[in-house]
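Have a close read of this protein, sequence plus C-alpha cells, and explain what the C-alpha cells say about the fold. Thanks in advance:
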Amino acid sequence: MTEHTNKQFDADLESVRSQFLQMGGVVEAMIQESVAAVPTGDLDLVEKVREREKQVNRHEVEIDERISLILARHQPTAIDLRTLLAVSKMLTDMERCGDEAEKIANTVRRMYDTEQRHIPVIELRHMADSVGRMLHNVLDAFARLDPIQAAQVVRSDKEVDREWKGALRNLITYMMEDPRTISRAIDMVFIARALERIGDHAKNMAERVIYMVKGADVRHTGVKNAERQARGDEDTPSSEQRPGVDA
C-alpha cells in the first residue's frame, strides 16, 4: 500500500475501534440504569435504557458497514485482519449485552406495572457490579491491547456464575416458603439470568481480545490456558486445559 493508503487505512481502523468503545460505553450505562431501576421501579430509568438500545443498534450497523468497507478497500496485514475479525465478532456480544440490559428494564416495568406487592428481596447489586466491571475491563483491555487484563475478565466469569447459582437457590427458597412470591421471584430469576448472560458475553469479548493481540484462539480451552496464552507462555496445554475441559 502507498503511504497515503496506509494513513487512510489506519484512520479507518481507528474509527472502528473508537466507535466500538463508544458503543461499549452506552451498554455500560444501560446495565447501570436497568439494575438501578430494579429496587425502585423508576420508569424514567427504564425509558432511558430503551432509548439507549436504539443507539446500540445504530452503532452495530454502522460499525459493520465500516468493517465491510475497510475489507473491500484495503488488504489488511495479519494483525489488522485479526483486529477487524475480532471486532466483528465482539459486536454481536456487545449488542447482546444491550439486549440483556433492555430485558432487565422491561422486566422491571412489568413487575411494577402489575403493582405486585410480594416482591422477594434479593441482593443482585454485587452480581451487577461484577458484570459491570467485567464489561468495563474488557473495553479497557481492548483499548490498551492488554491480553493479561482480558484473561482476568475470563477468570471473573467463574465468580459471576457462582453468584447466579446462589441467587437462583435463594429465589427457589422464597417461592417454597411463600407461594405469593412465585410470580415476582420468576421475574427476579429473569433479571439474574440476564446479568449472568452479560458476564458470558463479556467473557467472549475478552477471549477475542486475546485472539486479536496474541493470535491464539482460547475459546473452550479453559481459564488457565487463556491466562497462559495471554502471558505468551508456549507450554503445551495439559489434559485439564484442552478444548472442552474448563480448567
Summary: The domain at 1-231 is CATH 1.20.58.220 (Methane Monooxygenase Hydroxylase; Chain G, domain 1). The CA atoms of residues 14 and 220 lie 30 Å apart.
